[in-house]
UniProtKB/TrEMBL annotation:
PANTHER family: RESPONSE REGULATORY DOMAIN-CONTAINING PROTEIN (PTHR44591:SF3), STRESS RESPONSE REGULATOR PROTEIN 1 (PTHR44591). This is Response regulator receiver protein. Residues 3-119 form the Response regulatory domain. InterPro entries: Bact_response_regulator (IPR050595), CheY-like_superfamily (IPR011006), Sig_transdc_resp-reg_receiver (IPR001789).
Length: 134
């Protein structure tokens, strides 16, 4: 079962992500701050991490670098979450080790499509959504 961590100081964003992604094939864990996320990653590295690009306590790029520097058998896929398309922020995040970005606020189709393009969406979610759109 995959584990996805949403790191965002907005409880609404974390809850929406959990509602969309949580289920039998993915566990969604929440971190309200960068420091919480680092502690959680050190204890048990998730498979996927979505990092708010504007965390109040730790710059997103620093968080990504620190996660990448951790000793772990799991090398998570990392997305930076932004409120507007900012190519410079996306490039900095990618240089730090992120695979891509997610614009917020997001809805179910947008979030699942981003996870599909990175091949990290749970199979049951991909199947149930492809049936809905067919």
């Amino acid at each position: 079962m995959k584990r996805c961590m949403f790191v965002d100081d907005s409880s609404v964003i974390r809850k929406v992500a959990k509602r969309i992604l949580g289920g039998s094939e993915m566990i969604v864990i929440e971190a309200a701050s960068g420091l919480d996320a680092l502690e959680m990653c050190a204890a048990d590295m998730p498979d996927i991490i979505v990092v708010d690009g504007a965390l109040p306590d730790v710059p997103a790029v620093d968080l990504i670098r620190r996660v990448r520097a951790m000793e772990s058998p799991i090398r998570p896929q990392i997305l930076i979450s932004l409120v507007e398309l900012d190519i410079a922020s996306i490039m900095r995040a990618k240089r730090a080790g992120a695979q891509g970005y997610l614009l917020k606020p997001f809805n179910r189709p947008q979030l699942l499509e981003r996870f599909r393009t990175l091949k990290i969406a749970p199979d049951s979610v991909v199947l149930s959504n492809s049936r809905k759109s067919a």
